[in-house]
Amino acid sequence: MKLIFWDKIPIGIGYPSKIFLIMKLIVFFMALGLLQLSAKSYSQKVTYSGKKIQLERVLKSIEKQTGYFLFYKHNEIKDLQPIGNINLRNVELKLALKEILKDQPLDFFLKENTIIISKKEEQAPSAPHYTQADLIQVKGRVTDQHGKPLPGASVRVKNGKQETMTDANGVFTIKDASPGMVLLITFTGFEGKEIKVINNSELYVSLHMIEAQLDDVVVIGYGKQKKELVTSAIGSLKIQDEDVRQVSSPTRLLEGRIAGVNLSLGSGNLASGERVSIRGFSSITAGNDPLYVVDGIPLNTSGMSLTNFGEEYSPLAALNHADIESIEVLKDAASAAIYGSRASNGVVLITTKSGKDGKSQVRVDISTGFSEFANKNKLKMANSELYTLQYNEGALNYNNQYNLKVGDSGFRTPIMNPFYDSPDTDWLGLILQKGYFKNLNSSFSGGTAKTNYYFGVGLTEQEGVVKNNEVKKVNLNTKFSHKLSDWLEIGTYNKGNFIRNNQVPGASLGSTIIARAIEQRPFDRPFKPNKDYYVGGTDELVRHNPVQILNEQDVYVDNYRYLGTFYGQINLSKHLNIKSSYSADIGYTYDYTYYNENHPYGTGVGKLVDYNRFIINNLFENVLSYNQSFKLLNISGVLGHSWQKQSHRTVAVDARGFPSPSFGTLTVASEIFNANGSVSEYAMESYFGRATAAYADKYMLTATLRTDGSSKFPKHNRWGVFPSVSVGWNVSKESFMDHTNVDLKLRSSWGKTGNQEGIGNYSHLPLISGGKNYGNVSGIAVSSFGNENLAWEKADQFDLGFDLSLFNRKVDITFDTYYKKTTDLLYSMPVHATTGMTALLSNIGSMENKGMELSISSTLQLGPVQWRTNFNIARNKNKILSLLDGDAPIAIGDNRALQVGRDIGSYYLFQANGLYQYDGEVPQQQFDLGVRAGDVKWTDVDDNQIINDNDRVVLGSSNPKFNGGWNNTFKYKNLQLDILLTYMYGQNLYAAWKPTGLARIGHTFGQLEEYITNRWTGPGTTNVYPRSVLSLSHNNKNSTRFLEDGSFIRLRAATLAYTFPSVRVNNFEIKNVRVFGQADNLFLLTKYSGWDPEVNTNLDPRYSGVDLLNNPQPRTFTIGTNINF
To answer: Where, by residue number, does the polypeptide cross the bilayer (predicted)?
Structure first.
């Protein structure tokens, strides 16, 4: 257990006394401000005067005076004549609009706090006269494009006086209607429709939301902003109910959808770890994950994620993807700097669904399906005959090479198939299965003018494609807000989550369960005739028995997590409000690993590892928001204070000796082999502000400043300052663009962010740890020297981009180019061994990332078919600029290195240069070591005829040259097809599973058929596949032999769905029913010889791109239904 120096944590950061004082002062000034308030809402009276005023200018003034939202089409008003003379003094809004538009070919509609301006309908000839007997009653129902009713929609007779509105179910009735009459149906934010009355049959009218309204607002740090005013690089994904695909984790929704965002997976195991990278990697050891902010709560991902067998799982496991409304990705420093020291790797803002005003809504989503191991037979293994042939040939070559005869020491004995009359064992088939799953998600939401509520629940049960890999998950989500008055609002967001994950061995144990199966000899069996297991690592089995491992272990992780926020907001005026909130992120993990006495690791007595972890993260924030317009100038801003403290406790016990395989509890263990625990905490205090100015929505300027103080650093380096500035120009609002169908915005930004993730809470302090044993006497020892000069990593980033819309917004193009430089890289610098330590965390280098991003989206109507498509591509180039002293490579692991001038994903390998064809070609020094004709010829870099680590070179990269996605949606009436493709090009993968066994010709492990059938058997037979020889490691060095092209195109998901319109059963109405079928990972195009080019043994970017036969991503088939009531 570590002993820490509590006095090193400053009072202003480590303890909340200052915070409580600040909060008291804030409450005092808020109360003082309230004395000046009168309970009033936005004014609905309008004052304006002038001559020859452009209509758009008058409308903007009304919008600012009343606080109403204003919707109109720019091309419908831009060419209208100016208003000659206008003089309004405290006039009611409706009368003011009539006066302003009286001489214009425009009409208006008022709905709640929204004004819609549209063209007047052309006057049609007067309808023929009908007698009373000819008149009919028309009844109809108005819904949105998804079948949801639109209560309050306006239904009026064109060129007539009759007018009505739809009720809560979207139903309307027009009495005394005449055949041939035309009904005009409108609703706020939707495209209106004209419907001709033919007879008295019931009408069904579907209105489509105006495209511009779907994406006109984006979420930014501590607020929202109109998309047209955004001056930074923000990727936005709106989750529409009909578009959302079934995913195992919310981050999977980002796959292929936003340029510059790349998602990597640890494996295909359930709840496997994910690494989201935004514009490449910016750090070596301080963490490369973005900051996740859920409903305003910055999530703690360090130490909070599930772990088991060393594999870290998704940090967003506590969220249900069915509850998510939108995801924004802050990619540049200008948008992310408001989060300061945690935003160096970008920010992912997740907004969950809330209740909306109107009738209560109930949604039920049910899905089920199965997963299967994709491309199981891609790795074609040698059968018993080939295996025996190559092994005996390898034994013969070895014996002849060293002149060994039967009875000599070291003689290699040939083998034979003991089960020659039986078929080979399908080792993979013994551990794989079809993994069935079922999901249920339900929500209940609604609201009034004062109160909004949302309640969601999710249940998941899932089996993996490897036996005993199972997940059970429960998600709860509640949101509630209530306006106590016009000036005071309170609310709370709460999310709870429970996961039980039964896991299987991953690569952290030295070999995955998949590798343990496929590396077995083809003729071996899992069970003896008496049903006992064959024992691995002996003459019986060359690897641990995978069936025995899965059957004789009980391994699971229970994780409980709670995210909650409680807030109060006071509107000091219609332009100014203050919001105070308390948030908590609480997690408890119980990690249980039990190997009974029959397990290979149970050592005959059983072994239990019992691990408990509790983390609580408290956050207090106070944010003052301002927004006011002065004629054409709009000023907005935020000022805030934040205080955060995290506490972390762990207890781990290793016990042995259990009376029976059935007793796997700690209390019955005969020996506590090892016990340890830790207690740690850190705190951070922050002040931040942002100011935005927009003139005529044409010229925009935003400036941000944040300062963070963290207890992870010494006092003199504790505070970091992170500024940013961005500018934008809406060129399309200039007069010279009036007669074009082009929208163009130019933007540029610069900012500075920081990084403190991935380092210990006390890295700057000398530490002492217990648990040391000196002659059976317990003791303590220095475990770290600390570094009193430790400081933040800092990143400067410049971004230049544009947003372009063509053909009346049918085609949207977004382009960005950027340059990012990270300095003061945190890295463990080697120290002399005489110190008793191996490394000291220091700031020792710099790194750059530069690249570009392009996104093209369009909506095309091809006859009755609508085609929506989005294509994105991104390129990022990473380079280490400085690192320690000199440019020599720093080896990390068996096959990687860091070197100045190279990127963080570079490999460090021997270079293969074909095979020796004759013994005479082999240098004498290597010949003496057993190298012969048919063995690999390595490049002798230093030309000394000795092949050692000095001959390794830095080459290749696990980082792609470019990557992206292509999403397509085809819609025909109520039928919809979604196809998502993702791709990556130019990255290298290292097939580490080959030199360890499957491509090690002559080894005892199972072998690839390709390497045996094409092996070298004499001069000229091959220059690629070496000879078979036992006990020679020369041919299996970490080398370019196993470095492969990892480029791929993957059909990520295909979904076919049909939406049925509303159905009424007695008095019970189903608004719509959507049924769908979905397939994931249907096909994969790649040159990589392994199963999956996307899985990574280690999510650390220094080691990514290495495959140790992790479980590939499964192929999944899902059917389900979404029902809205």
So the answer is: none
